[in-house]
Write a structure and sequence with these properties.
By secondary structure, the chain is an all-beta fold. Helices cover 0% and strands 46% of the residues. The strands form two sheets. A four-stranded antiparallel sheet has the order 1-2-3-4, with no helix packed on it. A two-stranded antiparallel sheet has the order 5-6. The radius of gyration is 11 Å and the shape is globular.
Length: 70
């Protein structure tokens, strides 16, 4: 289980759990996807640039992350 708080995140709009237990967080106002390590800890940029409004995310069986961006 990864502890998660919205503190420090800029309008989180989507969460996905990766195979390693870490979280991917779509941050609308920051126009980025952050990674929160399994077990908690500081978030780091996972995917930045190219997003304008990341709203939702999904993962397929192969682990590919899809980000809904408007």
């Amino acid at each position: 289980v990864t502890p998660y708080s919205t503190a420090g995140h800029d309008f989180p709009t989507g969460l996905v759990v990766a195979d390693d237990g870490s979280l991917r967080v779509a941050e609308l106002n920051a126009a980025t996807v952050a990674r929160v390590p399994a077990g908690g800890g500081a978030a780091t940029a996972f995917a930045a640039g190219g997003f304008s409004n990341p709203l939702a995310m999904a993962r397929d069986a192969a682990g590919t992350l899809y980000v809904g961006n408007t």
